[in-house]
């Protein structure tokens, strides 16, 4: 994106790329959308992509690749061991992060599996700014526990704090004091903190965390899956970073950490993942698990084509005009929605735009899944698929009672360089219409509720005939438009 001044004074994020491969989309009429979401049990995970107009479910594995990435995939060196492709990837990671050792994996959660197996055992604690679903699952599976130490600002839905992903340093010291440094498996910082709205941490905060870790001899692990967004926010929101290049900020970030792992489904716009390690002893502890769970040490479950695309994607991540596309589109969407009074998480983060369902449909009790109901209503109104991030995504207590989530969010992910500005405008328009008709939206109730990960497979139905009324109002307002 370029910050180009428009004669008309409007602020518009301007694409610095052109689109040369396209995929046709279809927008089914509203009656069919109602049918499809009913078939999917009001669960957007169960919709078929053919029935979705704009897929804003996730940014994972669906970012657009560049022409250079595609070209690199054609010159991949296919060999089980010692492939030249692998060497190119390893060299690129050394160049960017300055860490000597690398272990490849098939995706981000595989890194978490290996880290948890090596560092976590019953009674061990992992302090972190905030958890990610798979991270927490791997740590607890090994008998460890997670301490979330994000600053209080991180959980405020409406805020002007530019770094809501920061860790509270006093809380970190207290947790280490309480458990003893020997019981801390490692400290984990997540860039572009996923579950609280893609919110970044500042480089200054990371430096403080790093100091505390060094003082106590505890390793600092960075989850760099959403690093690209975090780097952009460091550069644009943090004074001492303004004069630094993205490459310099990246190296400064890496220098503060002992281990960096990432999902290449996000970082590098490819697929796969890996762990970069500074210290030989730590590398040797983790290395045996890679051939066991992932694949041989020079591919770790990734295809050579993915590794070539990743190598080029990592280099492209050092380009500010590339990594700013996501945050600038999200910033635009958040600003447009705010102008129309729609409650969203502020400030805008990376990853996607997050609608605050607690305020949007404040008449729906948490026991009727307001964020799930809103995601269903949004699909009916627009053909857009978002993701529920609220009570539905929680699991019941052993006694069957609900755990009500802190936040009820509908996340609209903006995969990087995939959508156009008119598609974003369409999304804003339909969300605004839905907001004006929010009183028509009702709750949901389970028809089939799996015990584990119910948000993936669960089937729900509306508590009344509110969806038919919504369709009728749509026809009234939009005539025979799609
Ligand atoms: C997606 C993600 C992961 C897991 O990566 P996968 O490639 O999906 O396994 C871990 N951490 C964060 C912050 C993520 O966003």
Secondary-structure map with pairings?
Layout (H helix, E strand, L loop, with lengths): L29 H10 L14 E2 L11 H7 L10 H14 L3 E5 L2 H12 L5 E4 L4 H9 L3 E4 L20 H11 L7 E4 L12 H14 L3 E4 L3 H11 L8 H10 L3 E5 L9 E5 L2 H7 L2 H5 L10 H13 L3 H4 L1 H15 L12 E5 H4 L9 H13 L1 E2 L1 E3 L19 E5 L7 H16 L7 E5 L5 H4 L1 E4 L3 H13 L4
Parallel strand pairs: 1-10, 3-4, 5-6, 6-7
Antiparallel strand pairs: 2-8, 7-8, 9-12, 11-12, 13-14
Helix pairs in contact: 1-16, 2-12, 3-12, 4-5, 6-7, 14-17, 16-17
The chain binds pyridoxal-5'-phosphate (PLP).
What are its keywords?
482 residues, alpha/beta, Aspartate Aminotransferase, domain 2, 3-stranded antiparallel beta sheet, 40% helix, globular, binds pyridoxal-5'-phosphate
- Give the cofactors and ligands: pyridoxal-5'-phosphate
Average pLDDT over all residues: 96
Helix content: 25-40%
* Helical run tally: 19
Low-pLDDT sequence parts? none
What structural class should be given to the helix and strand makeup?
A: alpha/beta
Strand order of the largest sheet: 2-8-7-6-5
The CATH architecture name of the largest domain reads 3-Layer(aba) Sandwich
Number of strands: 14
CATH topology of the largest domain, by name, is Aspartate Aminotransferase, domain 2
CATH class of the largest domain: Alpha Beta
Number of domains as seen in the coordinates:
2
**Largest sheet geometry:** 5 strands, mixed
Overall radius of gyration: 22 Å
What percentage of amino acids are in beta strands?
5-15%
Provide the CATH superfamily of the largest domain. Answer: Type I PLP-dependent aspartate aminotransferase-like (Major domain)
Shape: globular
Distance between the termini: 31 Å
């Amino acid at each position: 994106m370029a910050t180009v001044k428009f004669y008309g004074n409007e602020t518009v994020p301007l694409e610095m790329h052109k689109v040369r491969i396209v995929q046709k989309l279809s927008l089914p009429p509203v009656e069919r959308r109602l049918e499809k979401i009913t078939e999917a049990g009001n669960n957007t995970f169960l919709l078929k992509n053919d029935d979705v107009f704009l897929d804003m479910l996730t940014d994972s594995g669906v970012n657009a690749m560049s022409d250079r990435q595609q070209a690199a995939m054609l010159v991949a060196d296919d060999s089980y061991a010692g492939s030249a492709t692998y060497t190119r990837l390893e060299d690129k990671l050394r160049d960017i992060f300055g860490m000597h050792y690398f272990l490849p994996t098939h995706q981000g959660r595989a890194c978490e599996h290996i880290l948890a197996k090596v560092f976590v055992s019953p009674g061990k604690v992992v302090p972190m700014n905030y958890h990610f679903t798979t991270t927490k699952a791997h740590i607890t599976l090994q008998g460890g526990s997670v301490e979330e130490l994000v600053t209080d600002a991180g959980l405020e839905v409406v805020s002007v704090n530019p770094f809501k992903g920061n860790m509270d340093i006093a809380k970190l010291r207290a947790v280490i004091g309480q458990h003893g440094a020997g019981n801390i498996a490692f400290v984990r910082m997540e860039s572009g903190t996923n579950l609280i709205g893609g919110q970044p941490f500042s480089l200054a905060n990371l430096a403080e965390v790093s100091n505390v870790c060094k003082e106590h001899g505890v390793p600092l692990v960075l989850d760099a899956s959403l690093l690209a967004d975090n780097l952009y926010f460091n550069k644009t929101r943090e004074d001492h970073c303004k004069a630094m290049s993205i490459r310099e900020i990246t190296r400064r970030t890496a220098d503060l950490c002992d281990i960096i792992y990432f999902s290449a489904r996000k970082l590098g716009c490819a697929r796969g993942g890996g762990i970069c390690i500074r210290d030989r002893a730590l590398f040797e502890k983790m290395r045996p698990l890679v051939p066991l769970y992932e694949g041989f040490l020079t591919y770790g479950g990734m295809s050579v084509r993915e590794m070539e695309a990743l190598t080029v994607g990592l280099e492209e991540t050092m380009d500010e005009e590339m990594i700013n596309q996501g945050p600038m589109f999200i910033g635009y969407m958040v600003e447009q929605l705010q102008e129309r009074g729609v409650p969203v998480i502020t400030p805008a983060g990376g990853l996607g735009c997050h609608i605050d369902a607690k305020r949007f449909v404040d008449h729906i009790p948490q026991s009727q899944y307001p964020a799930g109901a809103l995601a269903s209503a949004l699909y009916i109104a627009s053909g857009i698929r978002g993701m529920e991030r609220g009570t539905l995504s929680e699991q019941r207590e052993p006694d069957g009672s609900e755990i009500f989530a802190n936040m009820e969010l509908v996340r609209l992910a903006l995969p990087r360089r995939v959508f156009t500005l008119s598609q974003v405008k369409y999304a804003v328009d339909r969300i605004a219409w839905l907001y004006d008709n929010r009183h028509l939206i009702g709750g949901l109730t389970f028809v089939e509720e799996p015990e584990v990960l119910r948000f993936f497979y669960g089937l729900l139905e509306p508590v009344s005939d509110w969806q038919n009324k919504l369709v009728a109002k749509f026809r009234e307002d939009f005539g025979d438009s799609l």
